[in-house]
Amino acid sequence: MKQNSFLPLLTSWIENNHSACLAVVISTWGSAPRQPGSMMVIRDDFHVEGSVSGGCVEGEVIRLSQEAMMDGVPRLKQFGVADESAWEVGLSCGGSISVLILPVADTGIPLSVLKRLSVAQHTRKPLDLIFCLSDTQKLNLKIQKPSLSMNFVHKSIYDEKEQIFTLRIRPCNQVMIVGAGHISQVLSQLSVAMDLDVTVIDPRSVFLSKDRFPNVEIKLGWPQDILPNLFIDSQTAIVTLTHDPKIDDPALLHSLDTNAYYIGCLGSSKTHKARLDRLKKNGVSDHLLSRLHGPAGIPLGGRAASEIALSILAEFISIYNKPNN
After folding, report:
1. Distance between CA atoms of 87 and 81, rounded to whole angstroms?
2. First-to-last CA distance in the chain?
3. How many CA atoms lie within 13 A of 128 on its CB side?
4. CATH number of the domain that 210 lies in?
5. What's the half-sphere exposure (Cβ side, CA atoms, 13 Å) at 129?
6. What is the C-alpha to C-alpha distance for residues 169 and 3, in angstroms, rounded to an integer?
7. Does 310 lie in the same domain as 211?
């Protein structure tokens, strides 16, 4: 399950008369397997989604969550490898983590806050949830719009001196694939496996079906009609894969006017040169054309659809993760 599904899921549990907790990693040291902001949700019947470690402390977090559901008091717990007890309820990997366990209650994380965060995620609007942890018995929190960009290099952070934890609520990265061919099928499923939100667009109904594209959003229509109605932000990659200028070119013309961090085009170097010439004739500047990645993908040397899809996925993930992006 994607991390951006946890808060809506938690909301639905409460609305269906369950008690539940949200557990969040607030700080790490050493080789801890999960980063600050990683979430785990725990229900009163022991149903669990997500994780706060590689599996070595989850049992204790679940136990503490059950206690928090009973008394409504948040817990702040540190797990580490200071001694042999790490093998019992700790991190055998050589690191340490601090986990904040929040019951869904006015004394922890209120349902009204969860609903607001869930709406923000659904509409791809980033928010910062700020916790003052000086007294976990009387937890103070506030919501504010972030001053930092949505890029996940701006991770959730803990100011230990001030005892302030900022949980950065961001939408998942997404990829919009124009064209419903074989490469698109593989790329869409690889992207789902990477916890990306995926939308596939194509005006040709013979190619675009739920059977060919399970677990992703499909949009039947011309990209120039579909793309303006979608949320395209700085966590969006767009890839055109049809080889048909009637479909790809309008998608690129729209994409170049968005904040998408990656715009890739399938095709050979010769095909890409012809593409650039066509776009120039449509008034696109050299500066904008420099944003296009074509031929899309890093050079893996393979020609199979699966290899091409993997090369494209690797390219836009590596570009997103560049420190200066």
Report:
1. 8
2. 27
3. 19
4. 3.40.50.720
5. 22
6. 10
7. yes
Calpha distance 324→208 (Å, rounded)? 37
Cis peptide before 295 (omega within 30 of 0): yes
Q: What is the pTM of this model?
A: 0.76
CB neighbour list of residue 109: distance below 8 Å, 6 or more residues apart = 22, 102, 103, 141
Confirm if 246 and 239 have CB atoms less than 8 A apart. no
Alpha helices in the chain (DSSP H): 6-15, 58-71, 86-89, 111-122, 182-193, 223-226, 245-255, 269-281, 286-289, 305-320
Range of the domain at 86: 3-169
Q: Which of 129, 147, 169 is the last residue of a domain?
A: 169
Nearest to 94 by CA among 111, 80, 106, 107: 80
- How many helices and strands (H and E) does the chain possess? 10, 15
3-state secondary structure of 130: strand
CB 204 within 8 Å of CB 277: no
Report the C-alpha gap between 220 and 222 in whole angstroms: 7
Residues 204 and 79 in one domain: no
For residues 88 and 69, give the distance between their C-alpha atoms in angstroms, rounded to a whole number: 24
- Whole-number pLDDT of residue 84: 45
Alpha-carbon distance of 89 to 229, in angstroms, equals 49
In terms of domains, do 178 and 260 share one? yes
Q: Please indicate, yes or no, if residue 325 is contained in any of the structural domains.
A: no
Q: What is the pLDDT of residues 120-140, one digit of tens each?
A: 888 888 889 999 988 877 778
The C-alpha atoms of residue 88 and residue 296 are separated, in whole angstroms, by: 48
Per the DSSP assignment, residues forming a β-bridge with 41 are 22, 49
Domain count across the chain: 2
Are 191 and 294 in a shared domain? yes
Residues 89 and 132 in one domain: yes
Q: What is the pLDDT of residues 211-223, one digit of tens each?
A: 999 999 999 999 9
